[in-house]
Amino acid sequence: MLSPDLKNALPTTDELPCSDDTPVDNEDQNFLPNILLFLLNSIWANRMDWYFGVDMGVYHTTGVNARVPVVPDAFLSLGVERKKGGKSRKSYAVWEENEIVPIFTLEMVSHTPGGEYDEKLDIYRKLGVLYYVIYNPEFWRRDQHQPLEVYKLLDGNYQLQIGEPYLMPEIGLGIGRHQAVIGGIQQEFLCWYDEQGKRYLTDAEQAQQERSRAEQLAEYLRSLGVDPNNLPGN
Questions:
Q1: DSSP label of 229
Q2: Which residues lie across from 72 on neighbouring strands?
Q3: Cα dihedral angle (41, 42, 44, 50), rounded to 10 degrees?
Q4: Beta bridge partners of 188
Q5: How far is residue 121's CA from residue 48's CA, in Å, rounded to a whole number?
Q6: Closest alpha carbon to 105 in 148, 150, 65, 146
Q7: 119-149: string of b/e by CB count within 10 Å (b at 16+)?
Q8: What are the tens digits of pLDDT across the range 18-66?
Q9: In whole angstroms, what is the distance from residue 217 CA to residue 96 CA?
Q10: How distant, in Å, are the alpha carbons of 15, 72, 106 from that of 30?
């Protein structure tokens, strides 16, 4: 817990940059975390106690300088406002969030290694992030790791967890990979799962599923000699 004097001496998010201005290495570093965000907007539409940031600076006091952020590709905090004071956040300063640190951070490994397996792991450990996820779909053999790794902070150190999708009971969600067509392109992406291991569908997938059910019902009615276009109420 920070003392009031120290807290008052710290800069506000209005005074701090929103990130470290380092450009993303490829388009997926922004696109794939946003899929997780859009899914959460649907899954937790009625909850106002969470925040999911994408490529946003997280400022904290566990490093050498509170003005130097760590910038995850994505992070999730629980027990905070969706909109802080009704406004969009420019950055996330732990001291302005009742000292609530993210419960989940995501780093995506790309062409240029960014310390995901050592430097950032140690930053998140000191910060107290419960779940640290590293997604490395292309370069996992180069780095001698698995394509998706979930680390959980236990007794002050990160321990690699087993299983996919991996359920995070403190969050009430699991995380894993899935192959699907997105924007006309077949690709792998990260997605959320419920506590029974069922994958949450994107809005596009839900719409397609509803269309498919409607088409199946129409075909069934036709097989009974009923014109689905002439049903009462149509």
A1: G
A2: none
A3: -10
A4: 179
A5: 29
A6: 150
A7: ebbebbbebebbbbbbbbbeebeeeebebbb
A8: 655 565 565 677 889 999 999 999 999 999 999 999 999 999 999 889 9
A9: 53
A10: 24, 11, 11
The residue type found at 175 is I
Q: Which two tokens stand for residue 212?
A: 């498919």
Instruction: Name residue 31's amino acid.
Output: F
The burial class, CB within 10 Å (0-12 / 13-18 / 19+), for 188 is middle
Distance CA(21)–CA(29), nearest Å, equals 14
What is the residue whose two structure tokens read 């009971």? 169
The answer to whether the bond into 165 is cis (omega within 30° of 0) is yes
> Out of 89-98, 125-134, 182-191, 216-225, which region has the weakest mean confidence (pLDDT)?
216-225
Pairing of strands 92-93, 166-168: unpaired
